[in-house]
Amino acid sequence: MNPYADTKNQVVSTFRDHPRFICATCSAVLALQDELISKSFSGRDGRGYLIHSAVNVKLGEKEDRPLLRVLPRHTVALRLITGVHTVADVFCVGCNDRIGWYYHRAADQSQKYKEGKYLLEREKMVKENNWKLDD
After folding, report:
1. How many CB atoms lie within 10 A of CB 132?
2. Which of 14, 58, 64, 105 is deepest in the core (most CB within 10 A)?
3. For the chain, percent of residues with pLDDT exceeding 70
């Protein structure tokens, strides 16, 4: 699937009564909050969330990319290379915004836990809790 093709008509409305993450641009549902693995990842434009699965997304081309981990709590942000990963950029089906990437393969054995998972950037999503108030 071409990540830049118009796919707005393919957005699926799902997980209506569950806490979820939605696209900050078009409000398409992206993932259940229960699918969150970790909040301690870095995306291209800031913090990222490692998530088991996602919906209403499409993948770009696979590419080998050296990825960094940024530790912002230091006086100077410390950047650690976590190794080369085979990843594909992830795009929202509703608006075509790039919202993160998908880990196809990790070269380093210590990074294999990321394979088959999504890194979604925090700034590209909104946390929607779907709380219900009693009348």
Report:
1. 7
2. 58
3. 74
